[in-house]
Structures are given as structure tokens and as C-alpha cells.
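Job type: complex structure
Entries:
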Amino acid sequence: MPVARPESQDPRVIAHVDMDCFYVQVEQRRNPDLRGVPTAVVQYNSWKGGGLIAVGYEARNFGVKRSMRGDEAKRVCPDIQLVQVPVARGKADLNLYRSAGSEVVAILSTKGKCERASIDEVYLDLTDAAKSMLLESPPAMLDSIPEEALKSHVLGLSSGENKGEDDVRKWLCQPDADYQDKLLACGTIIVAELRVRVLQETKFTCSAGIAHNKMLAKLASPMHKPAQQTVVPATSVPDLLASLPVKKMKQLGGKLGTSLQDDLGVNTVGDLLKFSEQKLQDLYGTNTGTWLWKIARGINGDEVEDRLLPKSHGCGKTFPGPMALKTTSSVKQWLNQLCEELSERIQSDLDQNKRIAQTLTLHARAFKEDELDPLKKFPSKSCPLRYGTSKIQEDAMHLFESGLSDFLNSKNLGWGITSLAVGASKIVDIPNGTTSILKYLTEKRTSCNPSDCSDALPGEPDHATSLISQKDADTKSYKECKVPFESEVEENPKTKASRESASDSKGLFDRDANVKGTILRYFSGGCSSNQRSTSEVETNQLEEEEEEKISSSTANITSSHPNLNLNQNKNALSENWIYNIEEIDPSVVDELPLEIQREIRGWIHPSKRINTAKRGSTIAHYFSPARK
Ligand code: TTP
Ligand code: CA
Ligand code: CA
């Protein structure tokens, strides 16, 4: 459910930038013969010409729509060029488009806080840039206003639509405008310049919305496509919302929007103005009620996050109609493919960006031969993510089995899977340097607590709670456990009490024990089991590896965490989640980066000399997908 965040009283300038027919543009850049020609990108599946996933604007002029298949598009537009999406492992490979998106982000992020919101869109907070411009070179003082800015559509100007560039020029330069509108005018010029740069440097066009909050900017960006921008002055907001169908708002596309229409007769967002906040709260609860009351007034306090990289990684595949998967072995085969891709992507995120994903989630859609409960959803399941393709494959399969068991209510029924997806979320940066790792882990020491269990929010792996299936070290059975997500991590009171008493009365030594508990959680893949025999083999192989430069990067630690032999026992899953020093297997420490070795040896044997003789290769390298 949406939650209203308090909106800052300070004026802001927020832009939402969305690429035009993105995959088509990427293909047109790869093959310039396609430029200016009706083009669409189709799924690899060739049934009826493949499903269209992106349609160029020339093709749209002929009536081609994304909902069509290739054959239908050919009927509507015989000259259309259908480009097949690249394929890898029997499914679409989107890497080409992802990196094209990154090129654009690199440019857009130069003017302020930038949040990558999807493969082809970002939010920008241009408040500071606009303030500087207003101080140093306000629009009225410019020798000339950039042409692209003059082509902007300013809502509410000249009775709803622009009369022309002269009106826009006047609006941009009006001396008696309020401060918010003056900033918005500067934002309009900044976004226009950024869009020109994007075109020059990447050959891609994009469209943008510019407003004083994210919600309004997002609503405005598709209003004039392709290759145009729309500005929302505060005075235009009531008219904009009065005519905006509720279903056009992302959060109102589902049941909430239907209830507003059916139960309250609310058809546009502006219709909500008729209801008091209290009334909306009575009907939909405190949070949603307040949120509805605010969006009716165009109020939205969401901040632009400073994030150029995706929040999560996911890959999935659908198996429609007769292609549904009906055996565990066929599910396993596809799950292995999906996990292989996911593993490659998180590994490259780790290598390139020093980011670690902490949660693995499995989503599926399924049907079963059960007349009584045909609509029951396949529950999404999550667990702590262990790096390494085979580990991810193994865990994903366990998640699937756990989900299937719930889905079937442990009955022996026939079933079929129509879509499968795996995701890696809860991605965090790894700070450089051991000291900061220590600090980082100390701050993040709240972890998966087996005693704190609940059901998942279906389809919302990145939100407040998620179901995790947790492998019990001994029984290999699965438990369901609620993992608090970053923003709302709350320390388990018992753990907290234990930590506080440790640091208060027992001094540094015990405080370190707490920290180790958390580091070890990373090493051991959270609550997962460790298989001693496997670890030993892997450790031996490591020792045979050529010695490599050991960097202080924690990537080595984190990517290795699932495989290190820590002699973890049942106590490791104890409530307080604190390891004893004895539980650290010294043979593991040899494989770690030097700085980490020093630190851990300091805990184990404060005065022992550090043995750096057999460090082996970096663990990140060792566990790269190529190695078995
Ligand atoms: P969109 O931004 O929704 O669409 P678009 O960029 O193709 O067109 P527009 O100019 O209207 O913004 O999606 C971005 C890309 O994501 C799109 O080019 C292809 C891909 N995509 C899918 O693969 N499947 C989908 O269902 C959607 C909506 C998009
Ligand atoms: Ca787009
Ligand atoms: Ca988009």
C-alpha cells in the first residue's frame, strides 16, 4: 500500500526522463538502416511472429501496438522491420539494452542526484543546479534560450497548451514569477540541455517531465512523446489531476483504483478532492487514506534516491499454455538457466561496483488441479543469497520446492508452472577498507532471525517484509522467516540487550565477538548451512592457485562467504546470532585478503604472527561461474 511521505516545504525541481521506444532505438543505432523505418523489437519466441516488446514511433503511426504479435504487426504495417531481441540461454538477453541505459544515466547524472528507476528511465533532483543557475545566469539574462527548451510544453500556459515558442520564452523569463516557478524555468533549460547532450553522445532521444515532485514529473514525461519535454507549474496541478483517470496512476492501477471507481465513483484523481482525509482514512486505513488525500492535491514527498545502479537484479521466463512446466526436473532445468544468468549479473555487479546482493527470491505463477482453490497464488520465497552459480541454483530449487509445497497445501495434485523468475535484492555497497567494513557490519548486524517468522507479501520482494525460506543447518528443512529490510531494520531486543551488555561490561573483546557474528554471517551465506567436505575441497584447490595480488577490497570476502568452512553448527542459528571465536575455522582465514586476515587473527590469537604464505587466488576469482 502506498505511504505518504511529508513533502518538503522547500521548492524542488524534479525531472523524470524516459527513453523513447528504447529497445527500438538501441537496435536502430546498431543497424542504421533501420533509422526512419517502421521497426519493432520482438521476443525470441517465433510463434505468430513473436510478441512485440518495443514499437518505434514510425510503426505506431501505422497503428502497430505492443500488444500485437509480429504477424499482426506485418498485416497492419507490411513494411515493418521486426528485430529479434538477443537470446541467451533460451531467453531474452537484455544486457545490450542495460548497458545502453547506463550510457544515458552517465550523462543525466552530471547535474544532480540521479535515481535509475528502470532500464530506460531516471529521476533527477535538479534543485541545486536550478538554484545555482537562477543566481548566476537566470533565463532572462541568457543571450539566447536553447531551442530545445523553447519547444517545451508548459502545462496551463495559454489555456492549457502552448501557443508557441514565444509564450514559452515569456514563461521562462517572467520577472514576477514566484520562486518555485523561477526554479522550474531553470530546470526546464537544464533538462533541455541534458537531453540534447544525450542525443549527441548516444544518438538516443528521450522525453522528460519537469515538476516540483516525483509524482508530477512522472505523470508529465509521457505527455508529449517522442523527444519532447513537459513542464508542470504548481498552478497547473489542479487541472492536470482533474482530468487524470485514476487508473493512470501506477499505484491506482489495481484493486485500490477499482475500489475508488466502483465504491466511491471516483474516476479522476481530482475527484478525490470531495473526500476529507478522515473519510479516506476510515475507508482505506491511515496510510493509504492520507496518501490518497495528498495525491488529490498533487502532494508527494518522495525523495530522489542517489542511485545510478539498479536496486535489484531479476530474470524470468514465461511458459504460456502448452509450454507450462509440469515436472520438477523441467523446472530445475529452467531454474538453472535463470540462476546462471542471475549469478553472472550479481558477480559482475560485485566486480564492477563492489555491491553485494543479500536476498535471493523466487517468484512463480502456477496452476493446479484443485477445483476448490484454483486461484491460490504460488507464494514468493526468499532466502539469504549465497554467491556462486551452483549455490544459487541449489537454493532457488529449494525455494521452489518450498513454494510448491505451500501452493499444493502438501496435497498430491497435478500442477503446472507458467512463469518462473529469480531475483537478487537488498543490494548494498561494500565500503573500502577493513575499518569501515567493521563499522559497516557493526551497524548492520541485525540479521535474519529464525524466531521472527511471517508470510511473504506476494510479488513484493523489495518491500517491507519478505518471506525467507531458511535452510536449517542440520535438518535441511525450511523455515519461514521475516527479514527486516534496510530502511526498517530493527535490532532484535534480545540481541540488542546482549550486545549492549557485552560492550558495557565485558569490553572490547566481546564487542568484537558480536561483530564477528555478523561478518561470519556474510561468510556463511547468512542462515545457510555449510558443507564441510565441499569447503575443504575448495580450500585445497585454492591453495594450489597461483598467488595473486590481494586487494583490500571486501569483494573477496563477500563473494566467498557461502563457501568458507566455518564449522558452523546448530548454535550458529541461535537466537542472538553471535559466534564464538572457536567457531572460526583458521584454515579459512588464510584465504582472505591480508587486512581481513590481520583483523580476524587479532580476534582469534591477538599476538599470533600472521601467516601470509598460502593466500591463493582471490576468492572472487575462484568462485567465478567458470569454476566448478
Ligand atoms: P517503456 O518505457 O515502457 O516503452 P518504450 O521505451 O518502448 O516506449 P515509450 O517511448 O512509450 O517509452 O519500456 C522500455 C523498454 O522496456 C521497451 O523499449 C522494451 C522493454 N519492455 C518490455 O520488454 N516489456 C514490456 O512489457 C515493456 C512495457 C517494456
Ligand atoms: Ca521508454
Ligand atoms: Ca520506461
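Summary: Residues 434-597, 603-628 have pLDDT under 50 and may be disordered. The CA atoms of residues 115 and 307 lie 5 Å apart.
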